[in-house]
Amino acid sequence: MLLIKNGLLIDPVSGERPGDLLLAGGRIRLAGGRIKAPPSCEVLDASGLWVFPGFVDAHVHAREPGAEGAETLESAARAAAAGGVTTALLMPNTAPPLDSPSLLRRLRRRAKNLPASLLFSAAATRGRAGGAAAPLAALKRAGARAFTDDGSCLPRLLLPGLIRKAASLGLPLLDHPEDFRLTGDGVVNAGPAARRLGLPGIPPMAELRAVISGLLAAADNGPLHLQHLSLASSVAALRAAKASGWPVTGETCPHYFTLSDADIVADDADFKMKPPLRSEADRRAVLRGLADGTIDMIATDHAPHERRLKTLGLRRAPFGVIGLETLAPLCVTELALKGVVTKVRLAALLSLNPARLLGLRKKGRLAPGFDADVALLDPRRAWRVPERFVSGSSNSPFVGRRLRGWPAAAVLAGKIVFRAG
Fold first, then answer.
1. How far is it, in rounded angstroms, from Cα 150 to Cα 124?
2. Which residues contact 397 (CB under 8 A, 6 or more apart)?
3. pLDDT tens across the length of the chain (421 residues)
4. Dist. CA 249–CA 354, nearest whole Å
5. What is the topology classification, in CATH, of domain 54-364?
6. Pairwise CA distance, residues 230 & 207, whole Å
7. Second label for 223, Cα 20 to 30 Å away, from 300, 316, 393, 398?
8. Cβ(327)–Cβ(300) under 8 Å?
9. 301, 371, 373, 378: which one is catalytic?
């Protein structure tokens, strides 16, 4: 039993209020007001802290199997807990790809008893190759919580059928919107930064064309979730689709609302991700999409890589940056403290909406009966992003950046799994 006292409770439905939170049996027993500690109850003083439902990150790469030198299930779970992320959905672009029920069952066994709840998405097509659908029903029986070919765009010829099949199974289908024919050998956003650095550019149309085709497929066939949106035009297309009543949702990542391609001032592959950092106008449009409800959630797209690979430079290094441990302070500093979104809206973006996407009915709120998953953030102290991380990798573009809102503690199923320091 755990009593969290004197915090500012932030619930995405009922709002924010000072009070206590009593956790017992893996669930929230009481929320709000002053609660007397029962006998033998552990007490956590949350004075001055913001108390959120545990964050649910619907887009994480753990690299196991195939690239354990960059990240393992265990190191990803520890990094998640250090970031206030109590539930993480892992992507299937592993080696081999997660397209078989037997591999999924093995990984789920390995993911038990870790400091964060790790869920698994399965490949939507066999080998993530886009040629034929994976055995989706068998993968659901093995424990898949979503389907995606993340890292690859879902094949447009198969997309209507994949949407319908995922819907019939009651699981979300997640799409990485990118037309690789347009991406070519691009490594950064096509524009001034690419020209300044003498690098091949990725045209915005590579994302937008795939976003539009995905939205159109969803309009006729069923729900579709769009990953890591980075463009003003993508946000506008999602906004229009929602206004038309189409069953679509979308996410963005902290690097797309905090950075632009103007921040790439040197050949530093820690600024290389996909989609790439866009223009300042795109960054501001993403912020507006978060504020007005067009974008449903924030995910990290945590993509660890070994340092030896990221030192190869922008042209040769792999795409991807880590994000689990900087998720909370970036959102607090750049969104809540600047008045872009309220703390209550932030709780929806980080907790409730991704929980709903994944069908996690008992996660995402600070209310009696919900899972006892909690993230406690400190908005008072400012710390610089360190060079070393809990993650197995350190490829972050935010190293040295001064931020507020770092996690002070994280609680999973009523047990403290992270405490700062």
1. 9
2. 255, 259, 263, 268, 270, 271, 321
3. 999 999 999 999 999 999 999 999 999 999 999 999 999 999 999 999 999 999 999 999 999 999 999 999 999 999 999 999 999 999 999 999 999 999 999 999 999 999 999 999 999 999 999 999 999 999 999 999 999 999 999 999 999 999 999 999 999 999 999 999 999 999 999 999 999 999 999 999 999 999 999 999 999 999 999 999 999 999 999 999 999 999 999 999 999 999 999 999 999 999 999 999 999 999 999 999 999 999 999 999 999 999 999 999 999 999 999 999 999 999 999 999 999 999 999 999 999 999 999 999 999 999 999 999 999 999 999 999 999 999 999 999 999 999 999 999 999 999 999 999 8
4. 10
5. TIM Barrel (3.20.20)
6. 8
7. 300
8. yes
9. 301
Characterize the bridge pairing of strands 188-189 and 201-202.
parallel
Phi, psi (deg, nearest 5) at residue 380: -85, -45
Structure token digits, residue 266: 């040197």
Inter-residue contact 324 to 82 (CB < 8 Å):
yes
Instruction: Count the Cβ atoms, other than its own, within 10 Å of residue 282.
Output: 25
Query: Which residues have CB under 8 Å from 174's CB, separation 6+?
Result: 58, 59, 121, 146, 147, 148, 150, 225, 226, 227
Q: Which residues contact 76 (CB under 8 A, 6 or more apart)?
A: 60, 62, 63, 64, 88, 90, 116, 118, 302, 304, 324, 391, 392
Q: Measured in whole angstroms, how far is the alpha carbon of residue 202 from the centre of its chain?
A: 23
What predicted TM-score, i.e. pTM, was given to this entire model?
A: 0.98
The dihedral through the CA atoms of 102, 128, 222, 120 has a sign that is positive
Q: Count other C-beta atoms under 10 Å from residue 277's C-beta.
A: 25
> Are 175 and 153 within 8 A, CB to CB?
yes
Helix (H, G, I), strand (E, B) or coil at 216: helix
CA distances from 190 to 183, 257, 265, 312 (A): 10, 18, 15, 21
Catalytic annotation present for 149: no
Burial call 18-56: b when 16+ CB within 10 Å, e when fewer: ebbbbbeeebbbebbeebeeeeeeeebebeebbbbbbbb
Contact 65, 21 (CB under 8 A): no
**What is the CB-side half-sphere exposure of residue 318 using CA atoms within 13 A?**
14
Q: How many CA atoms lie within 13 A of 345 on its CB side?
A: 19
- In DSSP terms, 45 is beta-bridged to 5
